[in-house]
Amino acid sequence: MPLDAAWAIAWTRLAAATISEHREELSELDRLIGDADHGDNLDRGYRAAVSRLDSTEDPGAYTTPGAVLKAVATTLLATVGGAAGPLLGTAYLRASRVADAEELGPQGIADLLEEATSGIEVRGRAEVGDKTMIDAWRPAARVAAAKAAAGATTAEVLEAAAAAAAQGAIDTEPLVARKGRASYLGPRSKGHRDPGAASCALILAAAAAAARGEAA
Fold it and tell me: Which of 136, 156, 157, 204 could cross-link to 168 by cystine, CB 3.0-4.6 Å?
């Protein structure tokens, strides 16, 4: 099933709901190696994104997934503090540029994830193994590309990407942080899951749930 603007809106709502549900958990992860506000920041940003989508009076404002993602991008950039706002805002903005079609198929989803990931890599100057959200995004983008090339459906591409992101987040636990505030801890950052990778795994799981037709 191709994914359209309604899917992108459902994704945003589900992401907001899951971030809200895990807000304290994410902030606790951040307390261990950061500023202890990651969950609160994301919760505020995604609530604002949902509010923006709900308050738009122009029925033609969101006719493509790209239009929805662009609105989410600018909202996150304006409302989420710390590094997460610029990084996720950039991810959504880059993704919006390859999602202008009315519907996205498997390759379109793979392209969306690749653009989002590349945007974060450039903005954050991070790579896999640095113990950042890239440790969730890059495996997701890589698996999505492989699944799309192998003929998987859009839902299958997103399911595989979400699973890869979840594993990527888990895999940050033994790493020593090389980027961001956590890097100040050096070896003491080992043994803790990166909050950015954890939240992005939740966000990508929400994308897969929306493709399955789930609603917040």
Answer: 136
Number of helices followed by number of strands (H, E) in the chain: 9, 0
Q: What is the DSSP string of 51-110?
A: HHHHH---TTS-SSHHHHHHHHHHHHHHH--TTHHHHHHHHHHHHHTT--SSSB-HHHHH
Alpha-carbon span 130 to 201, nearest angstrom = 16
Task: Provide the b/e sequence for 73-84 (b: ≥16 CB within 10 Å).
Answer: bbbbbebbebbb
pLDDT in tens, 130-168: 999 999 999 999 999 999 999 999 999 999 999 999 999
Residue with tokens 């033609």: 60
pTM metric for this prediction: 0.96
Helical (H) or strand (E) element with 138: helix 134-149
